[in-house]
Amino acid sequence: MVQKAPNLKGKVIAITRAEGQAEETASLIERMGGKPYIIPTMEFKMPEDLSQIRDFIEDLQHGKADYTVFMSVNAVRFLLKEAEVLGLTRHLYSGLGKTRIIAVGPRTAEELMRHNIHVDLIPEKYSSNGVAQALVEIGLRGKSVFIPRAKGASPTLREKLESLGARVREIHVYEQQIPINYEKTKALIEHLTSGRIDAIVFGSSQSVKNFLQLIGTSLNLSTLRETLNRPLIVAIGPETAKTLRDNGLKVDVIPEVYTFQEALAALARHFKQNRSEGYAVV
Hints:
The protein is of the alpha/beta class. It folds into two domains: 12-42 and 179-273, Rossmann fold; 45-177, 3-Layer(aba) Sandwich (Rossmann fold), CATH 3.40.50.10090. The protein is 44% helix and 16% strand. The chain has helices spanning 23-31, 51-61, 73-86, 89-96, 106-114, 128-138, 156-163, 182-193, 205-216, 221-227, 238-246, 260-273; strands spanning 12-15, 35-38, 43-45, 67-70, 100-103, 144-151, 167-177, 199-202, 232-235. Helix 1 links the parallel strand 1 and strand 2 (35-38). It is globular. Residues 276-282 have low confidence and may be disordered.
């Protein structure tokens, strides 16, 4: 007898992603029998001042980066868009050809390769620690590492690489902000307090912070924690889990591979294994 794969049948799964990026995850949930509930916790925009991007492209051309690390699909897309705005697309491609390129995970690597940008390495673990470990193994001390990423991103990777002897430069290629929609926030709180959301998936520390800021304007801390005690909480990666726990929240599921697809599969397995009420914290 063939055993059925775990599914999300009848479960309402909240996704804390930017509105334009949630569709693919929503489709995955639907294919697994669940009902997606999109909670936009962030939106992205290009920096007004692109002088840092211009300097970055110039330094790439001069071979000043031993490694360039892309930590997200957004970093790839915004950098290419900014190079186009500056009229420096050809120069960017030339500069990227002079550095070893690390993509944090397969989705970021696919985005780079889709634009004919070579990828030298994808770490085993799709995280800051995974990137740091991979760089240590191929030689890091004394090397220059450039990281095009979001303004306000977690300093974990930079601090880790610097502690291992690298010279690190972060280039802010996009900015994140919280989308304010009072009607959606009110509806979200109603759905949470009434128990209509079965699980919430957090893909980054920033999504946790923004989510808490969004609903924290209407709920005090103790009520917020009590409200979030019922739905299962999924953290994609240890850093996201740490941010949740640092804010006094439980973490029920952490996938072994840090992607939304694996997170949903791990969540489905968790539902299957815990059919009775009350879920153990991982």
